[in-house]
Amino acid sequence: MPHLHVWRAITPEHARRMLAVADTWIVDLDDPLRRRAGLLVIVAIFTGLRASELARLNWQEFFWERREVLVNRHKKRNPRTWRKGVPFSGAVQEILPIPDALYERLFPIRRESGPLFRPTRPSTHGTPASMQSLTTLLQRDWHRVRKAANVPYVSRTAIHAARHHMGLAMRDAGLSPYDIRDQLGHSSIAVSDSYTRGGTPHREKLNAALSPVSD
């Protein structure tokens, strides 16, 4: 079973409160910072992706008809494309299901191409923001929504709280360790007698796991 830290996870109630704020912010066309922060919280809560994986998402990699998204897993390295000292090189690409709650929020505001998240202004030196600086911005975005939703501070690596929430929600909904491993991008699992593999497709089970925060 993947190692899940309960104390690092946001609760379903906190997730609902943050989503309520995020749902209003993503339609705020006059404030790109709020729009980006709202989009971040929605995608983070309904996917459980790492900050670096969120930062690398592109609109053209969302396959709406199949309800799937292409994710670059930088912690799973391909030795043929990995280069020492090059951040996020060698990332393994994986296809993940898009839960219904995420689809319903993203599809109306979808774009044809381009990154989901981008800095709203150039860096101090006028050069494009690096992936590391973008992940820092996204962590700050998370805290902006958290404070607006009056959700307590969980950890400095804020977005990771959504990963732990996802893992616990999937576990409590009865998804197998294999489903949790695949969704969170873990490289291995610890077999547990408490969890068994079911026959329901991954996306359907994922929808059931997320229903407490998406209803």
Question: Your description of this structure?
Answer:
With 215 residues, this protein is mostly helical. It has one domain: Orthogonal Bundle (hpI Integrase, Chain A). 44% of the residues lie in helices and 9% in strands. It has 8 helices and 3 strands; from the N terminus they run H-H-H-E-E-E-H-H-H-H-H. The chain has helices spanning 12-25, 32-47, 51-55, 100-106, 131-148, 160-172, 177-184, 202-214; strands at 62-63, 68-77, 91-97. The protein has a 3-stranded antiparallel beta sheet with strand order 1-2-3. Helix 2 (32-47) packs parallel to helix 6 and helix 6 crosses helix 8 (202-214). The radius of gyration is 17 Å and the shape is globular. It starts with 11 loop residues before the first helix and ends with a helix. The model is unreliable at 1-7, 82-87, 122-128 and 190-200 (pLDDT under 50).
Main sheet overview: 3 strands, antiparallel
CATH topology: hpI Integrase, Chain A
Low-confidence runs? 1-7, 82-87, 122-128, 190-200
Round the Cα radius of gyration to an integer and report it.
17 Å
- Tell me the β content: 5-15%
CATH superfamily: Intergrase catalytic core
List the main descriptive attributes of the protein structure presented here:
215 residues; mainly alpha; hpI Integrase, Chain A; 3-stranded antiparallel sheet; 8 helices
